[in-house]
Amino acid sequence: MQRQHLSSGSLIAIAVVSIVICVLLAAPFVPPLTWALALSIGAAPLHRRILQRMPDWPSIAAGLTVVILVVGLLAPAILVGRQVAREANHGYQVVQGMVASGEFEASMKRHPKVAEWVDWARENVSFEEEAKHAASWVGGWFQGSVVAVSQLVVAQFFVFFMLRDQAKGMQTFRGLMPLSPKEADEVLRRVAAMVRATLYGTLFVGSIQGFLGGTMFWLLGIPAALLWGCIMALMSLVPSLGSFLIWAPVAGGLALQGNWGKASILTAWGLLVVSTIDNILYPILVGKEIQIHPTTVFVATLGGLIWLGAPGIILGPVCFAFATAILEVIRNRTVGSRAVEEAVS
C-alpha cells in the first residue's frame, strides 16, 4: 500500500512538472492561439459553406477559408497600418513645427478665456516634451501593431488545423473535462457565443465607429483622419470610454479656432451617429444569444487588455464566460434552480 501511494504521488508530481513545462512552452504562443480561436469561431459559418461543397476534402476547405481570411483581413490591415504610420509621423512633424514657431500658443492666446490656462501651461508644461512623449507612445503602439500583425500571420497556421480538426478537438475537450457531454456542449456554446459577441459586437462595431469618425474628419479637412479614425476604433473597444474621448476634444479645438460650423457638424455627427451606432448594430450582430452586464464587460475587456495586451480583448471575456459556465454546472449539480429559489424565499 505504501509503495502504491508512493507511485501515485510520483506520477502526480511528474504530471504537475510536465504540465508546468508545457505551459511555459506554450506561453509564447498564447496571443496567436487566441487570435486563431477567435478567427476560427468567426469563420466557422464560411468554412461550413465551403465544406458542404467539398465534403471529401476537409484540408482544402480549411485552406480556402484561411486564404479568404488572409486576403480579407491581413492585407487591408497591413496597408492601413503603413498609411497610419505615415500620418502619425507627418502629424508629429506638424505639431513640432507649430510648437517651435509659437503658432500653437499664439492661436490659443487669441481667445481670452483660455489665455490664463495657456500661461499656466507654459510655466508648468513643456509642450515639446509632451509631443515627444506622445510620439514615443504612438511609435510604441505601432510597434505593438506590427507584432500583432505578425501574430495574426502565425495564427493562420493554427486556424487551419482548428477548422480542419474541429470535431476531433471538441471530442478531446469533452474527454479531458470532468463534464457530461451535455455540460461540455453548454460550456463550449457559451465560450463560442462570447467570442462571437466580442468579434462582432466589440471589434467590428468599434471598427465601424472608427470608420465613421475618421470619414467625418476627412470630410471636414482635419489632418491625419485615418490615424484618428484608427485611434477612435481602438478607444471604442474599451467599454465606458469610446470614441468620445477623441472627437469631442477635436470639436472643442475647432470651436476655439472659430470654426463653429465644423465644430457643430462634428459634434452632431459624434453624438447622433458615432456614439449611437453600437446600440443599433450590437443587437443585430450579436442578438439575444448572450446577455452580459456592462460592468462585467468593462472588467473583462479592460482587465484582459491590461494583463495580456491585445489578445486580452478576446481572452478576458472568454475567461469570464468559461468561469460562469463552470459555476452554472456546479450550481445545477448541487442544489438546482428550484431548490435555490425555495432557499431564498
What is the helix content? over 70%
Radius of gyration: 25 Å
What proportion of the residues form beta strands (DSSP E)?
under 5%
Number of domains: 2
Give the quaternary arrangement of the chains: single chain
Structural class of the secondary structure composition?
mainly alpha
Which stretches are poorly predicted, pLDDT < 50 over at least 5 residues?
A: 339-345
Molecular structure report:
This protein has 16 helices and no strands. The chain is elongated, with a radius of gyration of 25 Å. The longest helix is centred in the first third of the chain and has 44 residues. By secondary structure, it is mostly helical. α2 packs across α9, α11 runs antiparallel to α12 and α14 packs across α15. It has two domains: 134 residues, no CATH class; 167 residues. The C terminus is likely disordered. The protein is 86% helix and 0% strand.
